[in-house]
Structure prediction request, 298 residues.
Amino acid sequence: MDEALRVLTSDGAMLAVAVNATAIVARAEQIHKTSAVVTAALGRLLTAASMMGMLLKGKDDSVTLRVRGGGPAGQLLAVTDSEGNVRGYAEHPVVELPLRADGKLPVGQAVGRLGQLYVIRDTGGKEPYIGCTPLATGEIAEDITQYYAESEQTPTVCALGVLVNPDLTVQVAGGLLIQLLPFCPEEAVARLEKNLAALPPVTQMLSSGMKPEDICAAALNGFSYDVLERYRPEYRCPCSRERVERTFGAMTPEQLRTLPDAAGKVEVTCSFCDRVYTYTREEMERMAAEKEKKSKKS
Prediction:
């Protein structure tokens, strides 16, 4: 099971989140059967969303990250709750591209750079907060950093990593997010920059056996901090038969009656978990009749 934690320096100057998201990304790969580069791209977005969810204040709050960069992977989407439980998908799960010159997966090329990162934060108000910034590199981590700087004016460091095995399974995945809070002293910033310069890549740290707490300790070396919360995030989709039926509520009785195929069935597939919900012609007729009955009463 994955694990994560959120910490705050004792002087209230920095907030950090670290997560081992290996099981989350592995589950996404199993569901969507993604190619290596899409596994890396979607895995990074899922990890970033999970950490951003842990920064939410309300228990029922949620964050949605949407990326469309013009690359062959198409749109990438990730949705998380306040405990870092996350789900997502890539529009085109299979993309084959040659490795970069340094031997790494070309995530930026798969995602593309000619697009936007949308951050939709639902905190229970009448309308969700929607932030949008141009993509910086399509590599996801840099795009998250730029979003916080431009849209929320919060200096942020984001590091993400997904290591994919030759058989396309996920070896490790995780991330680190550090935010500088108002009035953070310059000397603290300088110390943090020195720490980060010496910090190995996230995948290297996880592969060596480091846990999220170890990663935070290395990044915040020399700082005193308190652990605010520990998490056990997972890939979680809340879809259900009842939720699917609620989506039928926006349709007219006539539309409902036209949905069954030649075999008299309606199949709805969840984009996040690939679960299939099947309805018979009789069930669709029942829903249509109920809508007509309610319409007459009103």
Q: What stands out?
A: The mean pLDDT is 96. The longest strand covers residues 170-180. The chain has ten helices and twelve strands. The chain has two domains: 3-231, 241-297.
